[in-house]
Amino acid sequence: MLMLIQDYLIKAVSNYPEKEVIIAGKKRLTYNELLRDSGKIAAWLMRRGLKAGDRAGILMDEPMEYVKSYFGILLAGGVVVAMNSQTTVRSLTYQANNCEISFLLSQLKFVKYVKELSGQVDSLKNVLISSSGDEEVPEKLSFDLENLEDLLQRFFPEPPSFPAVDADGLAQIIYTSGTTGEPNGVMLRHRNLIANTNSIVKYLELTEADRVMAVLPFFYSYGNSLLLTHIAVGGSIVVNQHFLYPNVILDEMAAEKVTGFSGVPSTFAILLNRSSIREYQFPSLRYVTQAGGAMSPKLAREISNILPETDVYIMYGQTEASARLSYLEPEKLISKAGSIGKAIPGVTLNLLDAEGNPVPAGEVGEIVAEGENIMAGYWENPERTARVLKKEGLWTGDLAKKDEEGYFYIVSRKSEMIKSGAHRISPKEIEEVIHEHASVHEVAVIGIKDETLGEKIKACIVLKEGFDLKKMEIMRHCKQSLPPFKIPHDVEFMAELPKTTSGKIRKKELLSA
Amino acid sequence: MLHNQIRAFIFENFIFEEDSEDMLKNDDSFLEKGIIDSTGILEVVMWMEDTFGVHTDDTELIPENLDSVNNLAGFIERKKS
Questions:
Q1: Who contacts A331 (Cβ-Cβ below 8 Å, separation ≥6)?
Q2: Of A472, B42, B51, B68, which is the most buried if we count CB atoms within 10 A?
């Protein structure tokens, strides 16, 4: 029985030492090389004082360095805090301070952010930086800076011994947007991630022969689970996280003979509508998976038509559940169109009313999940944790109904969270930023339906009397405090916002306008 | 002229600043600079089709045609001729 996430890597190295684990463009990394370099990073972290349970951040978009850092931190007994690389100084500083990271592993291209942490994050003592990128490193910083490539060049005479960590210990903290402004740090223990990884491996029937095309960033829970499931079976991961030119990805999928592909609804919308996918043949492609929000049954059917020999899995989950909660078997794609399927092995899903009583078949209730994969809670936030983790299990905030054969169908979300592309976005965070603009009187941010993104961000703004503003000025203002994916796509200036008698903004009315 | 028209569109829709050489050179990769994401590139394609009346085939959605001001300008010129 495996105990810790790094045991997946150690086992794969003993079974397939010379096999390629990561393929990114022209760069290729074997299991042996991954363990060797992760071991060096772990040794460095320990020598610099990292203790079991200490948090270490990763701010990287280079897949090789990311994966080496990820396992390096785990081998040293640390907790991985993988940060979104599309970020701002504001959110980085918040996360770094919130979970008090003592180490940060990053790249030269992110130095512009890293230097801003100097003097702002007291806990941060050491930064390891990879030289990819061409920024200049400032001289005076409140932490020590070391170069990753130099470190990896060094000769380590003996493999260091790594600390024993309990499977109940934390492995990762993943920040997700909360409905109430600041992001929540989802705490995942080793055993949560192990349980979920093993379950996914089982239902996708993954083996060492599998090679997945990973277009989703590893810092998100979906990308993280692609990484873990394929290392767990000794498979390979072909990485291209720039999904800008889909035909480049399709070429790579064919050339690398990938057996799997995973995406969010917008990934598939782009592939179907703006790529040459119909002109390709993928004889090796065994399965595709879709998660990260509801995909229209029409889109699912089209994918299945274009890839008749490939199994299409619709999946559902949450970061709070390590990733996965349910899946729909490929053979039910048409007969159960629109369904998120049933619970994955090891998970129980119930539909409950607000009092915690089960609702009858056909009626709407909230999905409540139980299983080994459920998070330990939100980092240092017992109030928010208590709102979602109750005696019945994890209250997902997703409202659904179940048919007589037990298949779940999501009806709506309880919260106002916007799902745009692969991102989960809090309207409140954007509203707060826009509200800081001196000429804004009131603002409401909503998600409007979009064929490609799932939802687009729209800001409805009422200006103060006597003020006049252009859309571009709002965008420029947002860009100072928000990463690109949170900048509204549409801005509408309105005379007033629709409200209830108690003064609450009626977002539903804005949505139907 | 064509280059300026492209720059005006990119600055207004993705950079939200006044045009400046410091922020974007004509041969800078949109991808490397992190200026445009996957859905952004579709907006560029739609704008190009509307503005210049050209049709883009799905096989033409590649960096060589789209990933810088120069590449875009060259692509539009080839399509129009």
A1: none
A2: B68
**pLDDT (mean) for A342-371:** 95
Size of interface A-B (CB pairs under 8 A): 55
Q: A293: which 2 tokens?
A: 């929000």
- Closest-CA distance, B67 to chain A, in angstroms, reads 9
Which residues in chain A are contacts of B41 at CB distance < 8 A?
244-245
pLDDT greater than 80 at residue A156: no
Task: Choose among A381, A278, A307, A396: nearest CA to A347.
Answer: A396
Listed range (A203-217, A253-267, A356-370, A445-459) with the worst mean pLDDT: A445-459
Q: Counting Cβ atoms within 10 Å, is residue A169 exposed (0-12), middle (13-18) or buried (19+)?
A: middle
* Of the candidates A411, A380, A379, the residue with the CA atom closest to the CA atom of residue A396: A411
Report which residue type is found at B63.
P
- Cβ neighbors of A128 (< 8 A, separation 6 or more) are A41, A44, A69, A103, A104, A105, A106, A146, A147, A148, A151
What one-character DSSP code corresponds to residue B51?
H
Res. A314: pLDDT tops 90: yes
A475 vs B16: CB contact, 8 Å cut-off? yes
A117: region left, alpha or beta (phi > 0 left; psi from -120 to 50 alpha): alpha
State the average pLDDT for chain A: 91
Q: Which 3 state secondary structure label does DSSP give A435? A: helix
Q: Which residue of B has its CA nearest to A489?
A: B13
Enumerate the β-bridge partners of residue A359: none
Mean pLDDT, to the nearest integer, of A372-387? 96
Residue A349 has pLDDT above 80, yes or no: yes
Sort out which chain B residues have CB atoms less than 8 A from A269's CB and list them.
none
* pLDDT for A34: 97
Banded model confidence at residue A506, pLDDT cuts 50, 70, 90: confident
pTM (2 decimals)?
0.87
* CB-based contact, B37 to chain A, within 8 Å: yes
Q: Which two tokens stand for residue A378?
A: 């939100």
